[in-house]
Amino acid sequence: MVTALVVAGAVLVVSGCGWSEEREAAQVASQEAQLKLLMSVAEGKGAEIMGQIPASEVGTTVDTSGIRLTSDFYEEWPKYYKWSQTVELHLDGPRTPAQVADDLEPWLAQHGWKRDKGHEFPPRSRSFTRYYRWDGFLLELEAFTDPPPRAQAVRFMIVTPDTDADAPSPAPTTGSGSPSGDD
């Protein structure tokens, strides 16, 4: 009788482990799909923003985008994506980084980005940073204010929401990447 209970208990534990592994695999697959969608949205929104700076004003761009772990303990999930571009304007170009930032302000508002002044600090001696939010995404815009011959740079960074193990797989995107279609 005791042996039968031990065997039955072992079967329950082993079968429970299988369910747990299946659930974990499903959560990982869901988060991978979420991350892919978040990356697509961030890259689409970033491209729209970059499209507001005429190519004739741009000298070089540096891309430092990438996937980041949310946890400080090196756990595999959840993750988020950081789209990041630094744009160096031509030194003799028509606009300074501050003018680019100011000119983008109404365009960003028109496209659903809400400025988050509560997140901002006073301007520093060589740059200022503005923060905007859209549908859980954070846009950080840093304009460097040193005059030429220093590089005339604007840094853009879009940080996505974290993936969520308990969320359902994401819906397909429409337009420029908004899952809800509100592009």
Can you describe this structure?
By secondary structure, the chain is of the alpha+beta class. The protein is 34% helix and 26% strand. The chain is built from 2 helices and 7 strands. A hairpin with a 7-residue loop joins strand 6 and strand 7. The longest helix is centred in the first third of the chain and has 49 residues.
* General form: elongated
Work out the oligomeric state of the chains in this entry: single chain
The low-confidence parts are: 1-17, 172-183
Largest sheet: 7 strands, antiparallel
Give the number of helices. Answer: 2
| Percent in strands | 25-35%
Which range best describes the helical content: under 10%, 10-25%, 25-40%, 40-55%, 55-70% or over 70%? 25-40%
Mean pLDDT: 83
Q: What is the N-to-C order of secondary-structure elements (H for helix, E for strand)?
A: HEEEHEEEE
Number of distinct beta strands: 7
- What structural category do the secondary elements indicate? alpha+beta
First-last Cα distance: 66 Å
Radius of gyration: 23 Å
